[in-house]
Amino acid sequence: MNPRFSKWTEDNVAICRYLHENAREVFLELVLRIAEQGIYIRLTSGHRTAEEQKKEYDEGDSWVLCPDSYHCHGLAVDIVPMERVSDLLYRAIWGKDAWERGVYEKMAKVAYKLGIAWGYQEWGVDRGHFHYRDNKTIYQIAEGNFPKKPEIAQIPYHRETRRVIDRLQNRDIITPTLFPYLYGSS
After folding, report:
1. What's the CA gap between 164 and 60, in Å, rounded?
2. Quick one: how far is CA 11 from the chain centroid?
3. Cα–Cα 20 to 30 A to 5, which of 27, 71, 143, 182?
4. Is the separation of the CB atoms in 101 and 109 below 8 Å?
């Protein structure tokens, strides 16, 4: 299986790029490992400002405001599973269809191995939400007590993830020139 669509799309990498520095690498690794399970995904949200979180709240897409959201601290992503319709076309798998296929549970198992929590497992809602907290409560995080960066020795990163992390640390821009493997030319 070639999970290129799922891994290093410009949108997926850009969302990870703006996550908290202690969570960025582990979410990039999550994207890769989910893709290796044969699951296509699209990250739809990552770090949110207080204004963006309020908009989500006002629209009924969130039940908390900042600072009580992991998104406001750059420690969460929202994931939509996708399915391949043709060589160039993918569509989201929503609701009952995704639930019956066990897609979220498969993603949650991968996340758990990386120390990432699944919103649905914690709260019984928000199937697409995943956050990294390293056993910290949202209240500790809101007070500035951020989770530590996962130890590379404890979670060995895939070589390809390491390449993306290195490029993100050294460059401000994601382009086909800097990230040829994001665009299918590696």
Report:
1. 34
2. 11
3. 71
4. no
Q: Which CATH number does the domain housing residue 39 bear? A: 3.30.1380.10
| Domains contained in the chain, number | 1
Output the pTM of the full model.
0.79
Q: Each residue of 91-117: pLDDT tens digit? A: 778 777 777 788 999 999 999 999 999
Q: What are phi and psi of 40, to 5 degrees?
A: -80, 135
* pLDDT at residue 75, as a whole number: 97
Rg of the Cα atoms in the chain: 16
Angle between helices 10-17 and 24-36 (to 10 degrees): 150
Structural domain of 177? 4-183
d(CA 41, CA 44): 9
The predicted-structure confidence for 31-72, as pLDDT tens digits, reads as follows: 888 888 888 888 999 999 999 999 999 999 888 999 999 999
Structure tokens at 31: 């994207």
Q: Characterise 79 by phi-psi region: left (phi > 0), alpha (psi -120 to 50), beta (else).
A: beta
